[in-house]
Every structure is written in C-alpha cells, then in structure tokens.
Amino acid sequence: MFQQITILGPGLLGASLAMAVKERGLAPRVVTWSRRPESRAKCLNQSWCDTVFDSPEEAVIGSDLVVLCTPVQTIVPLLVQIRSGLAADALVTDVGSTKSLICREALSVLEGHSASFLGAHPMAGSEQAGMEHAQSDLFENAACILTPLDDAAAEVIAKLSAFWDAIGMTVSTVSPEKHDEIVAHVSHLPHLLASTLCGYLAAQDGTWRNLAGDGLRDTTRIASGDPQLWKQILEQNSDEVVRAIEGFELQLHHLKTALLNQDSLGVIAQLERGKTYRDQL
Amino acid sequence: MFQQITILGPGLLGASLAMAVKERGLAPRVVTWSRRPESRAKCLNQSWCDTVFDSPEEAVIGSDLVVLCTPVQTIVPLLVQIRSGLAADALVTDVGSTKSLICREALSVLEGHSASFLGAHPMAGSEQAGMEHAQSDLFENAACILTPLDDAAAEVIAKLSAFWDAIGMTVSTVSPEKHDEIVAHVSHLPHLLASTLCGYLAAQDGTWRNLAGDGLRDTTRIASGDPQLWKQILEQNSDEVVRAIEGFELQLHHLKTALLNQDSLGVIAQLERGKTYRDQL
Questions:
Q1: Partner-chain residue, chosen from B200, B212, B271, that has the shortest CB–CB distance to A251
Q2: Which of A148, A221, B20, B142 lies 20 to 30 A from A119 at CA?
C-alpha cells in the first residue's frame, strides 16, 4: 500500500499503528522518531520498527506516508520541522483528537510544497498512555474520521481512506469544523464530565470512595487519562466544548427542576430518553 | 445462621441473594414471594427456592430473616402488609438504594411489634434487571451499608452485619441520613449524569452515535438502568440528590470558566484532581 511509513511520536497510538501496519503487511518499512532519547532506544528493540532516527526531518525522508502521532499542540510545529524533508508525493496525516486548528494551519505550512496533508482521527485509545500499552488490534472495528478541507484531492482522500480501512477501521469523512463539533459532544464532553465528577467527589469525605460501586468506576474510567494531553485537546476545541457543556448544563437543569417540582413524569421522561439512547449505542 | 429466610421480590438482587445464601449454607430453607404470578411460577424451578407463596404475609411466617427486595417505593407498603405474619423474633431488612424514608417509616410500622427492622444497602447490581440475570457472586467483595437508627439493638446490628459479611460483602454502618448523603454523591449523581448525557446526545444528530468510542460507552453504561426503579430512588432521595447536582454544577462551572478564560493552569489543575481521585478508586 505504501513503500515506507514514518510514525512520528510512537506512543500508545503511534506504536499500535506501526504494529497493525506490520501485521497487515501495509508497508515493507516502518521508521520512526521520538522526542525522548529513552523512547528512541526502546523503539530499537521493537519488531514493528525498522529504523529509528534522531530527528523528525531525517525520519520522513523517502516516506510516502507520514503519520504525526504527537499531542495535538505539537502536531503543527512538527509539520513545520519536517517540511523540508518531505518527499514531493508524500501524504502526511495525523491522529489528533481535534481537527479545525490543525488542518487549517497544516494547509498554510505546506503551501508551495507538493506533499499533501489530510487530517485523521482514529477514535481508539484508552486512559493508558505510552508505547508499552500498544496493541496491534487497538483500532479494530473503531471509527476513523477523515477531515478533508474543501479543496482536498479526491485521490488523496481515497488513498488515506483505504489505509485506515485496511487497519480495520470504519472510515467516515466530515469537515474539520463538523468533526470538532461532533467530538466535543461524544468524546470531550464525556471526558470532562467524568473528570469533573471525580474532582467534585475528591472534595468530599475521603471514606466515601470505599462505598463506590462498579457504576462509579465505569462512569469515571476515562478521568484517568493524561491531564496534559486532555488539556491540549480541550483548549484546541474550547469553543465547541463550551457549547457542549452549556447544552449539557441546560439538560441537567431540567432534571433538577423536575426533581425539585416532584414532577415524576418529567423525571421518568428524561431517564427513558437516556436509556433509549444508551441501549442503541 | 438463620433457620428460614424469606426473600420478597426475587429480581436481580433478591434471586442473587437467595443463590448466595444457598451456596454458602446460611439457611436450610429459602422461601419467596413475587408480585407477578409468572415470576412465582419461575421461582418454582429454581434451585435456590424451597417454597413459593402466593402472598407476602404467608411467605414470612416462621422466618427469622425477611429481606425486602422490591423497588424502594414499595418496601414500606410491603412491610405494612407482612406485619401480622412476622414471627416475634423476626429480623426484617431490605436492599433499597435509599434509606432515610424507609428506615423512619419502618420504625413506625413495627411499633408495638417485637420484630426488628434494620435497613441495608448492598451496593451491587447492574444495569440489567430480573431474576434471569441473577448470579450467586453478585455481592462478592462489594460494600454493604447498614443504617441503624439511634436506638437499634446492638445484637440485631451484629447479626445482620454477620449475615452480609457471610455473603462476601464489606459491611459498614452509618445513619440513614448519612447513607443518603453518601449515595447521592457516589451512586445517584453518577447515574443521573450518565442519563443526562445520553438524553442530551439523543437530541443531537443521530449519526454521531456511530462515532462513539469506548469512552462514551463506559461513561454511560449505567444509563441503561430501569427508569422506573431510578425514578423512585431519585425521588426518595431528592433533597440530597439536588444538593449533589448543585455541587457538581458549580465544579463544572469552574472548568467552563477556566476554558473560557484560557486559564491553562486552572484546566490542568482540575483534570489532575479528577485523575488523582480516579486512580485511587
């Protein structure tokens, strides 16, 4: 499918992707670069890694696919750094959880270069981070959103779509802005609610946690995610995230009002609506 | 431990309890009653059930432990109904998720009767309901809260504590009011947040659900719980639930404000606090 794939930033997502590429035979060579020397040393011993480079600009030379797998705030700076090393026909993509800022800025970074950038968001991962938790089936059966800008070339979209499809994902295509609106609701809002619930409970009596059941544990699992990564995601998508919070606040206000007014029908209608949605998920 | 245990309302909790009693040999006889004739017919074929009665007042005759396992709003009416059938030394308990109302009213129902009532809340279960999902290890290693009133006899507390301990639970004792405050935070609030999130997402574009990942699924699993049961729980504990909602609303407001003010340190401090709490759960 590709001759050489460069994975920049082989953490949980990057290393899992490299494993999947190797396992599915999607490229004869997978090369990598990581910011920290310790991580580069670790890559040397991995079966999914053919060569490790000391700089990202060296690592992209000769690759027809480059995947930026670093935290969202460093994706564009990294693209600036690798620009000069990119092959003329290189396709550059990323795995960032936000898309508007990244895709708009990537377009201007690559202006005048024949390489293409097409944003991607494979919606897989876990609250755990790092190469040591990587697994080749991380992406299997999950959704991957591609976010082409209006003037994206159809063959570039088709090529990248075929790649994520070959990784085992269900690929869809929306604009970067629509992507950010959607994930603000189905991903960023759930994350910050779990985190806020934990932060609120942390301020209560410490012994109460001994009485927590599986319900609380499941509901808050994602609150264990890396705060540095999530801070970047929430900040890059703050407009849509704030809109989602405000929509949620209104809904919660309705439920509170129904409870205060002893409006049984109102309470049950809201619980029914929630159950119907969840049962279809 | 007991000679005969009556389980009234053998749904998920009641039938699981009966199984555990049999498996652990805590009583030679387990008898039951269920409101619906179909359920009574089903009980006849269960290895955990020695006899099924057509009325609750018959089912409690001769039992030294009676466990009320019906939805919270029917626990006290059921106690009124069985009062005349209770043995003089009977110990009556329940598995309801709220305790203040139930324990206060149970006290007045049993006034002048030598049987005792002591409220219990085994914090186990799942979003699934019904006898068909029962399992003998449902309660294992989970918390059970006993909620004696001030004048409860020490030997009654010791006896019921030993029972739930023998079922495999970690037993603690608090007042009914403190119980309701705690579960409003660690159980009822998580439930209604999950349900409200689902209700809010149900009002958005229906195709977005295809892009949901495991994070959303885990966060909202409990929203599949039975709306009728949860309506009763939220209503019986509405004062504490509303207080918990308001505390949460304030915390969410802080996070929203930090995002709006581009206060990175504020955002990360809140995410860190949530992660620290969750990692210790």
A1: B200
A2: A221
Long-range pairs of A123-128 with CB within 8 A, sequence gap ≥ 24: A123/A183, A123/A187, A123/B211, A123/B213, A124/A13, A124/A16, A124/A169, A124/B213, A125/A12, A125/A13, A125/B213, A126/A12, A126/B214, A127/A221, A127/A222, A127/A223, A127/A224, A127/A225, A128/A12
Residue B139: strand, helix, or coil: coil
Partners of A97 on chain B (C-beta within 8 Å) are none
pTM: 0.88
Note whether A186 contacts B274, CB cutoff 8 Å.
no
Q: Where are the alpha helices (DSSP H) in chain B?
A: 12-23, 37-43, 56-59, 72-82, 100-109, 154-167, 176-183, 189-202, 214-220, 227-236, 238-260, 264-279
Backbone φ and ψ of B4, nearest 5°: -150, 130
Nearest CB neighbour to A221, from listed B194, B218, B280: B218
Note every long-range contact of B171-175, with CB atoms under 8 Å and residues 24 or more positions apart, other chains counting. Answer: B171/B143, B171/B144, B171/B145, B171/B146, B172/A210, B172/A211, B172/B143, B172/B144, B172/B145, B172/B146, B173/B145, B173/B146, B173/B147, B173/B148, B174/B145, B174/B146, B174/B147, B175/B147, B175/B148, B175/B149, B175/B150
Which residue stretches of chain A have pLDDT < 50?
Answer: none
B144-186: per-residue pLDDT in tens? 999 999 989 999 999 999 999 999 999 999 999 999 999 999 9
